[in-house]
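User: Teach me something about this protein's shape.
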Amino acid sequence: MKWLHKIYPLWLREKIYFHLVARTNLSPKNSDGYNLEFAPVKMRALLPTDYGHRQIASLGFYELDLSRKISSLARQGGLMVDVGANAGYFTCLWAALNPRNEVYLFEPSPRNLSMVRQNISALSNPKQVQVFDHAIGKEAGVLDFDIGPEDQTGWGGLAKSASARTIQVKVRRLDEVIPIDQDILVLKIDTEGADTWVLYGAEKILRQKRIKHIFFETNLARMQQLGIQAGEAEKYLAGLGYVVRPLDADEFYATPK
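Assistant: First, the predicted structure itself:
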């Protein structure tokens, strides 16, 4: 799919991909890695059957608007907290675009963690990234975690009850993990329905306005399974003095007033 990387503007590249290429599988593993559009780094580990990973390999990016916003903020320099990092795409962007940047990466899926570590190893300075193998939520403890189907990496998440596809994972509050003197330039959350719980667990940091930019998603089906109401995260953030704006149908962006 190297021919796709030659197409500009990027919105046209994306449109052609979804029209002509999206249903095809990723080509056999590229031992040299997959070039990213927004940063001088390659991702070494992607799952050929995964929808998002095929986009990264074919297009050089994933979620175009969000990639642009995070890449722009990365050039300012600071800490990004990547909750639900999957294979580490946004972490790789953040670390590669500024040598002073740091990342706290949270990913409880063992399969995804293996890919994360391979992809971080391609960075010029992997020590920019601290990897945590547990989930972030509204309270500390242990919860069931659905690892998702074998052919997709991004469909797993915290679950209300155990099943044949769940494992137990440690959960911590973000308030417990982030040092008290540490500001967060970007908090990126993608936890398949549990984004609201992540925000609940960061109440102290949010009240102190120590998070400057928040990107989170809604997954109504998974939220319903967890007992989370539509609009709950938006109301919570507004009550703590944040302005919440939609990015698209299910993505939101929040900043302090």
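Now, about its shape. The first strand starts at residue 34 and ends at 35. The domain at 63-256 is CATH 3.40.50.150 (Rossmann fold). If you'd like, I can walk through any region in more detail.
User: That's plenty for now, thanks!
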